[in-house]
Amino acid sequence: MQSLSNIRCIKAACARLSLPAVEHDPNGNLISVNVKGETLWFSNYATPFNQGVIDQICKDKEFTYKVLKDAISMPKTKAYFDPAYQKIQYAPFREFSSEKEIVADIFKNFSLPMIVKMNSGSHGTHVFLCKTKEEVETAIAAIFQKNSSDYDYIALAEDYIESSAEYRVICFDGQVVLAYLKDNSNAVFTGNLSPLHWEGAKAVLISDTTLVATLTRFLAPSFKAFPIHFGGFDVIEDKQGNLHLLEVNSRPDFSIFIRGNGDEPVTLMYEKILVSLAK
């Protein structure tokens, strides 16, 4: 069985650099690599580059916002705890006693259209563009639906930014090592707002050095506020050409990018990272 795309590219980079990659499971999705006497472990989409708490902050969009909002432009965001969550130790976090009260507070702080989304989701799951009060109510109810496999006990309301472009920017130790455009200009919306989940969307490798430099300058303040070594930064460009950070993924998945661009750009990225670690 073939390894996941991320691990496959890491193993290819190791082979080019004559770094033995030891496989520890039958599918080759758990590997270790020795670099300058240190054993680095890679498992599925997890890398050894970040501390565990960094992973947790990135999974929690509210935490990410709290850490970075004063360092870099992000859409205003507010979190709401499920008023029906039963675990007694979480009772102090319940600011509102009903979904109706939550919706009322959302409209005190945000205007339509707005984004309502689950706090710990990925791949565009439970992200709603709401244009009416009824859509906000439906979104909150969906996120707090306990019988759903996508249940979250925290919902987020967020300012909507009309996009002219959206980018995924992969950074290692403060440097851009890969960047691509999430191009849905000729794609069909099928219900998931995440650009690369539209039918016919493409991940387009960015080779324009001027654009890469612009993205690098924009993201630079975030590394002073948040000590992440490796991550994928989702950056949106509004209609006026201003950049805003949406979220950070400490375990980026390259499968959609590889589908349209092949393994080579990701292999080269990991090769560059491993070379920097071996110095």
UniProtKB/TrEMBL annotation:
Pfam families: RimK
PROSITE patterns, A to Z: ATP_GRASP
Entry's Gene Ontology molecular function annotations: ATP binding; metal ion binding; ribosomal S6-glutamic acid ligase activity
Keyword Hydrolase tagged: no
GO biological process: SOS response
Signal peptide per UniProt: none
Record-given protein name: ATP-grasp domain-containing protein
Taxonomic lineage: Bacteria, Candidatus Tayloriibacteriota
